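=== Structure Prediction Worksheet ===
Name of assembly: unnamed complex
Input type: mixed (protein and possibly other molecules)
Chain count: two
Listed entries:
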Amino acid sequence: MVNLGIKIHNLDLKNPVMTASGTCGFGEEIADFLDLSLLGGMVVKGTTLKHREGNAYPRMAETPSGMLNAVGLQNKGIDNFISNIYPRIKDLDTHIIVNVNGSTIEDYVALTERLNELDRIPAIELNISCPNVKEGGMAFGISCPSAEAVVKAVRKVYGKTLIVKLSPNVTSIAEIAKAVEGQGADSVSLINTLLGMAVNAETRKPVLSTITGGLSGPAIKPIALRMVWQVYNAVKIPVIGMGGIMNATDALEFMIAGASAIQVGTALFIDPTIPVKIIDGISEYMERHKIQSVNEIIGSLQC
Amino acid sequence: MKKTVIDFLLLDNKQLNKDNFQLTLQSPLPVSDIFPGQFINVEIKEATEIFLRRPFSILDVDYEKQTIALLVKILGRGSKKLTEARPGQTISAIFPLGKSFTLPDQNDRVLLIGGGSGVAPMLFLSKICGLKPENVTVLIGARSASDHIDVTAYQSYGQFYYTTEDGSLGEKGYVTNHPVFTEKLNQYTKIYTCGPDLMMKAIGRKAIDTNIFCEVSLENMMACGFGVCLCCVEDTKTGHKCVCTDGPVFNVNDLKW
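=== Predicted Assembly ===
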């Protein structure tokens, strides 16, 4: 029997496989397909202080080995989460992590304070990397001083596990990771989507209503792997890797490059049962390679 | 029936005309409670450029044989690839998805209007709506006679009328030019439609003006089909709604038409 358990700060995960924010709703949407208690963790839909309608349709473009989205953080706001959704999902036997978004530092802080009160939310993922909102979002995550400022402010009011989700749309993701580590982040998750664009040649118009959007899927996997490896070598806090993971081999590649845990995102759109297949695939790999603990895989890249 | 990722067996792939194919898929699990308007999200195999599944509405269900029939019209690379699938092949699909049309009441007189591949859920609805054939009118529009599919199997469920843009079958013009629509609309208590956006908008607006119950089935581009990606939203009177889970069937009164 192999040991799949890993630790992110003081959070014990039964296995390293989590579902990524914006790709699993609040869990309920995929519960028909998947026993959520099998997950190491579940990062629920990006939440903001106030209700957001998101961007106008069309919000999606299929691209080679991937897709662009420009959803723009459509969500019903924190009050709705606390009164309607949280009571329904809080007793799930997995770690529920809320993805936190804001237009201003004050937004992030106010939202975090509300989430701090919820017993069954052991961690937040601070999203300073959403490319699809006009204000805030990625703007915080693309420079060290602004990333530091938001993490510093949130750290003051949040005592539980603080994960910061990083943007790949930067010159040096390792520098941003070091900056947020310096302000007390307990973990970093990466990568959010890469800024991209799709054009309809017939109409000479952009496919997305917002012109640009976030690219995800296997198309971005080599970039994500490179960034996970760079960040793993730059910081001491655990790295959560994501970006185009479609199967167990992809997940293992991220762990070998330095990820303590991984998130599956876009792959869920195609196969919402994929997390279980990835968990089983990791076990099978460990048995085949006579690895007792999944921790032995983390950062085991032999250069 | 709960949403499931199913490996179907392709039993039959029949070319109906130039661009339309009828695929019959057998499920290893019982299929139950499937209604017109619901859809299936099909994986297109052996095609690396096609990343996402492709949604198709249900044309028919055989509960005993555990089969479902799909009408697949070639619109792009994904649908083209699917029409090349051979019987005996396994086809992965997520099923059943979406909300169906509201079934009519016993004393309703219904008008079902299908355009292009939107004819599929209309034929399914004509079959299972439970009304006498004299109370079911099916109006089908296509570009030309050669684009119409054979509806013989459904003809006993209602009165069928056709339009073609070139006049090669039925009335010349669009469905909205047909006398059933232009002159006799007040005979109907419910209108159901599926087809191109412009066609449905024209029908929907007329239904709103004449105060007739009308449901339309939308086709917004989607990534997942089960309500997590939030890509297929329609801007309704109550905000953005997911076409895949809040629809694809909407009452026109809820839309900003």
